[in-house]
Amino acid sequence: MNSDDLNIAIVGATGAAGGTAIDLLFERKHPAGKITVMASERSAGRKIPYGDAELTVIKATADAFDGIDVALFAAGGLVSRRLARKAVERGVFVIDKGSIFRMDPSIPLVVPEVNGDDIDWHTGIVSTPNCTTTPLVMVLDALRKLAPIKAVTVATYQSTTGTGVAANEELIEQSRKVLAGEEAKANVYPHVIAFNVLPHVDDFLENGYTIEEQKMLNESRKILHDDQLLISATCVRVPVEISHSESVQIEFESNVGVEDATRVLGDYGGMKVVDDPAQNQYPMPLEASGKDDVLVGRIRKDIAHEHGLVLWLSCDNLRKGAALNALQIMDEALRRNALRPAAERTGHAAEIV
Length: 353
Ligand SMILES: NC(=O)c1ccc[n+]([C@@H]2O[C@H](COP(=O)([O-])OP(=O)(O)OC[C@H]3O[C@@H](n4cnc5c(N)ncnc54)[C@H](OP(=O)(O)O)[C@@H]3O)[C@@H](O)[C@H]2O)c1
Description:
This protein is of the alpha/beta class. The chain is about 30% helix and about 20% strand. Helix 3 links the parallel strand 7 and strand 8. The two termini are about 30 Å apart. It binds NADP nicotinamide-adenine-dinucleotide phosphate (NAP).
């Protein structure tokens, strides 16, 4: 079976991540007749251009999944909680972009380049990581081949589309107001994001970290199958429309050279080294936006830690951070002949990793 043959549903098709999934399907020339676009009742009947064709949004309901092979859920946790398992009951392979299933031990959390094997034991749903976790685990997976990793300190610079369409519109509107000398009001975030940075992504936890920061630790451990890994994250929202960047400091058990690190990062699937400071070449959100690769650069020895390396990355949060990773999970499941749950394929439940 080819991916072209699949009936694909996008749930949350009018949103930032869902809209990018539609763009990616169009780039792949997926037939319009094999795409069903769903959102809330508010958007039912809305037309989404798809080349010369138009896709008509329908309300997401359990019955709407009849005849669907694969559903990409990008409509938030409540919708996934309400409909994902009902879709599975109707024979759908669900790829969920939200956070509710990510740490469920019975659901694989997958970045295909890192742990594509985990798709084999799914029971109908595969989850995709947070958009800051995805590029980080790719970098860590590449570098741990050189030496075991002891600890990671990361600071993120996250774009407004990471919060969704409404947050990005607010950035544009606030920027217009500030430039016009008018008062800008915050609605989506607790403070104005235009011409500002907010060291606050998601709610604060008792330990002083935010949920987003804690996710980077928990999700990375699950994807890398490494419960000992230590990650201290500071997640920061910045007035950038698309692409998250990260400043990453990695401490290894033994020495890792810059040349070796550059080589393994450049050889890793889905990653591109952009690292020529003399020519002002380094990853930037404007460069990463619209691209599939995670861009990595500024690779250097850490002068504050004996076996440390420091680097910088930028990654399109809507592509590899969301929709692209989801479609790659679909491709990988198809390649493994694993669209159906493990128990149906093998006659017994696969071992959960
Ligand atoms: N943005 C990213 O970079 C990113 C990255 C990774 C994961 N994600 C995840 O993807 C999901 C969507 O995020 P987003 O940024 O795309 O948000 P968004 O731009 O706000 O879009 C939300 C989408 O959900 C739909 N929706 C809301 N309530 C619904 C309901 N009751 N029934 C059906 N559809 C409903 C909306 O449809 P209406 O237009 O009808 O309201 C819209 O299509 C979230 O779970 C998020 O965590 C996002």
